[in-house]
Amino acid sequence: MSINWGTFWPRIIEATWDTLVMVGFSLLFAALIGIPLGIALVVTRKGHLMEQQAVFNILNGIVNIFRSIPFIILMVAIIPFTRVIVGTSIGTAAAIVPLVVFAAPYIARLIESSLLEVEPGVIEAAEAMGATPWQIVFQILIPEALSSIVLNITIATVGLVGASAMAGAVGGGGLGDLAIAYGYQRFETSVMIVTVIILVVMVQGMQTFGNRFSKSIRRR
């Protein structure tokens, strides 16, 4: 039985909205965890502002462990934790939990990479002028790396779009769930094509906005 697009479009729109909600909230919570974690990975490393090798080794190990787990396996592995947090392991709200766990270490690495791009001479000059480590972090490191941080957060957002679609494989809701339930299981190729087009447009829009915003704040 073929899809009646007249009545099916509201379902497409709802799934698109669910995907945007998943990505938006996941990015927010992942950034709240990942950005401080990324800063800590930089300032506690050997020879940096607040060198603490033991702290760095622990944080570095935790990030590496979570980044090495494929998302689809991570989703299944933390189902008990997801149920504790949101009371269910199915649906849009449930998908946000593994998306945050997946994205936070990734964002931490991206932030670390951006901050390490700042010229050491700039930091040394600030230290010579008597700036405290926290002043250097918030007044030198982050402002100098802001353009790169925006680009990397854009990359993380695009990655979350792909992961949110993958969440549909285990009933995560959104466009991925729609594509699997109708496009794959019911052999409705047209539904698969439409969901892919929407995801491509979504990613293109996010990437374009991120590129332009990064360019507009780049320090010359």
From TrEMBL:
Membrane topology field = Multi-pass membrane protein
Transmembrane region(s): 20-43, 55-79, 85-108, 149-170, 190-210
**Residue ranges of every copy of the ABC transmembrane type-1 domain listed in the record:** 16-208
Subcellular localization, per the record? Cell membrane
User: What PROSITE patterns does this protein map onto?
Assistant: ABC_TM1 (PS50928)
Q: Which Pfam families match?
A: BPD_transp_1 (PF00528)
Task: Tell whether Transmembrane is among the UniProt keywords.
Answer: yes
- In the UniProt record, does the keyword Transmembrane occur? yes
The entry's keywords: Cell membrane, Membrane, Transmembrane, Transmembrane helix, Transport
Q: Which InterPro entries match?
A: AA_ABC_Transporter_Permease, MetI-like, MetI-like_sf
> Which protein family is it in?
Belongs to the binding-protein-dependent transport system permease family.
Record's PANTHER family? ABC TRANSPORTER PERMEASE, TRANSPORTER, PERMEASE PROTEIN, PUTATIVE-RELATED
Question: What name has this protein been given in UniProt?
Answer: Methionine ABC transporter permease
Native species: Bacillus seohaeanensis
